[in-house]
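PROTEIN DESIGN WORKSHEET
SECTION A - STRUCTURE
LENGTH: 75
TOKENS:
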């Protein structure tokens, strides 16, 4: 069984740093503003969606149902 040590963590840090550099390079290539203000009201298309994301204490899931109005019907 492999041991997790500082070598593994150092490798993860190096990979994370290279990903950040790649993202920054990609953002420089994109036209237009990167940081823009969003309106207070965002219309969500009609339908439903579920998304699971990694959270500090495990997995956080979000289920959204929209009728196409300016606020979601259920979140």
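SECTION B - SEQUENCE
RESIDUE ASSIGNMENT:
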């Amino acid at each position: 069984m492999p041991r997790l040590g500082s070598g593994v963590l150092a490798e993860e840090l190096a990979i994370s740093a290279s990903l950040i550099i790649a993202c920054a390079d990609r953002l420089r290539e994109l036209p237009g503003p990167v940081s823009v203000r969003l309106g207070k009201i965002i219309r969500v298309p009609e339908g439903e969606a579920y998304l699971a994301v990694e959270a500090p204490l495990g997995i956080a899931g979000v289920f959204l149902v929209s009728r196409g109005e300016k606020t979601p019907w259920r979140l």
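SECTION C - NOTES
Residues 6-66 form one domain.
The chain is about 30% helix and 25% strand.
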